[in-house]
Each structure stands twice: as structure tokens, then as C-alpha cells.
Amino acid sequence: MERDVQLVRDLVAAAPGFEGLFHAHAFNEDGVLPHVFFWDVVQETVASFLGGGESDWRVTLQFLEEQLRLDLPEVSQVVSTSFLFNLPWPDQPGYGLVDHLGPAMSARFAAIRPSKPCFQVPG
């Protein structure tokens, strides 16, 4: 089994609130597509942070922090591009979730979504 698919399975085992989402994806996609699945993980995690959802956002962040620290390329790519990059922006509800990222995820988040623009538009 590919490491990114195992990441999804391990997340569902660690955070059973994602089980229904997993089964819906597996049924609709004839298997789980990790990057697509993680779009919904972001939505569910933000909903949980805001007081709704079926998962515990703390468990999700802790699990992803531990996975990112393993420094496995496939896992890092999914966590970075399909979870961290899709977190709310400063003007969106749930942005406060960013303040609860662990050290590895905070560093990666800062690298892929710097707080200052990488370029300046000539004025």
C-alpha cells in the first residue's frame, strides 16, 4: 500500500470521526485519493475547531504533527499541499486554528503560506 493511502487509513484509526468520510470517499472514488480526502479533512477539522463537526480537531492536529515529523516525502506532500495550504486564510472563520499547529506543521505552514507576499506589485 502506498504511504499516502496508509496516512489516510492511519488518520481514520486515530480519529474515528473521519470514518464516514473515509467510506464515502472509498465508495465514490473506487478507493481513497489522499489529496481529495484531505480537502474534506480540512473542512471537518475547521468545523470541529469552530464547535461543530464529528472529529476532534486536537486529535487531527496531533496526528498530522507526528506524521510530518517522520519526514516521509509522500506524507509530507499530502499534509503540506492538501491540509496546511487549504487551512482558512486570515479573513476566514477558523483561521485561529493556525495558532494551534505544532512546531513541524507551523514551520511548514510558514514556508508554504508566508505572512508577507513573496513579491511586491510596483506602485
Report on this model:
With 123 residues, the chain is mainly alpha-helical. The chain has one domain. The protein is 59% helix and 0% strand. It is built from 6 helices and no strands. Helix 3 crosses helix 5. The protein is globular and about 40 Å long. It starts with a helix and ends in an 11-residue tail after the last helix. The relative contact order is 0.14. The mean pLDDT is 90.
- The number of strands is 0
Look at the helices and sheets and give the structural class.
mainly alpha
Query: What is the helix fraction of residues, given as a range?
Result: 55-70%
Any idea what the radius of gyration is? 15 Å
Q: Tell me, what's the shape? A: globular
End-to-end distance: 52 Å
What value does the average pLDDT take? 90
Largest sheet: none
| Total domain units | 1
Query: What kind of assembly state do the chains in view correspond to?
Result: single chain
* Element order: H for helix, E for strand: HHHHHH
Number of alpha- plus pi-helical segments? 6
Which percent range describes the beta-strand content? under 5%
